[in-house]
Amino acid sequence: MSSPAMVALPHLINIDRDTELPVYLQISNGLIQQIKAGVLRPGSRLPGTRAMAQSFAVHRKTVVAAYEELFSQGWIDVRPSQGTFVSESLPNVLPNKLSEVSEGRSIKNSGFTFYTKAHLKRVLPDIPQGLTLDEGIPDVRIAPVNDIIKHYRSFVARSYNSRHLSYGSVYGDALLRETLAGFLQETRGMAVEKDNIMIVRGSQMGTYLASQLLFKNKELAVVGETNYIAANLTMLEAGAKVKTVPVDHKGICTSELRKLCGQEKVTAVYVTSHHHHPTTVTLSVERRIELLQLAEEYGFAILEDDYDYDFHYRNAPLLPLASADRSGQVIYMGAICKIVAPAYRVGYLVAPKDFIDEVAHLRRIIDRQGDAILERSIALMIRQGDYQRHTKKALKIYRDRRDHFCQLLKTELSEFVRFKVPEGGLAVWVELREDMSWIDIAEACRQKGLNIPDYQTYNFNHTANNGIRMGFASINFQEQTQIVSVLKEVMNHL
Fold first, then answer.
1. For residue 384, what are the CA distances in angstroms to 176, 379, 380?
2. Could you tell me the domains of the chain?
3. Which is more confidently placed, 11 or 420?
């Protein structure tokens, strides 16, 4: 004869076989709900696994797994030769209230004092809704998610890999560091070993860690005008004094840098060698050589943020500054997440071993380590060629989108803007006609459901700059046509 619980449970617990949540968890979660609701009382007997499996039309192992989950959480007791029972001592799932005063009240203002940092004050953007023109990010719709899942799952499924679930090296996964050393030697001509590499959560984290060790008391950091604003703010936050030198079609002007070196002690120069952020120009061979010579002569560090080296659309990209560094002047930063997807926060910091070791001490009190299993999965992707295959696929898509987008700008917006087709990267630097304002255009576009990049991002020093970055990689042909159509309509009516 069936117990009341046996009769009621299949009707009270809904099993959705189309959801991603495993059936055993659906059963265990359903039983917890019935216990909380008082349908199943402490001490009441639960059906056996065979009977429960039959009532839910599932395999007995599924019910066994559900009961194991409940037992591990303290919801049931298993009594030898007697059966399975709802625990007499249920988990305390509700926290004890300290008082009734704060119930239902959210606190807006702190009751303590804290520092505010004016130089960091920028509007924190919401995730844009609707049609969006970004600053140049990869298209997550083509991300190699299945490859990542394959390697992630295969790695964690091996019982001997349980040790990787504990704390790992502050330097990052050893296999990924070894893999990257070979990868960077092969693809970028960099003479590096594992000990020269730290795995970080993107090039931005690399810039932060390096800046904390380079700057403290108004040491001079030199950047191009205009520059990646997050880098400027990161160095200011570390204590640097930031000065700019011009950027032209050959990149940062090393002749102006030389003049500055003769006037002040330069601690570091930040440069995006491929392709300058935001203007997309590539630093020329001549200026790369001169920049390395200046660094050796005056003893400053070069912060080479090479986040988009992989995104070149010609057969012979220039090698990084780091590949020609023979005196230990270059701190090199790259990002795996730019190729894979921004959500997978994996990048790398490459520098002389003594600097990497010092960074490790700093990183330990900030982040301790990254996602070791994700890092190992990325290493396997590179070793088995999945990363390289995806890179080639992405480059073909992005090159076609660059060409299509630039043609649209030329045919539809030529009376309003000027630009050059970039040799690489994920965006076009677009300068607006002097009698028009990006601020006005952005507001008018928002009213029509189009989000465009913030002009102020590129006007750090409040110069007469009138350009913005228009990303083409994340938008397909149809989306590009829609965006340009809105821009044209708005510009025609201003």
1. 13, 9, 6
2. 4-86 (1.10.10.10), 131-138+390-493 (3.90.1150.10), 161-385 (3.40.640.10)
3. 420
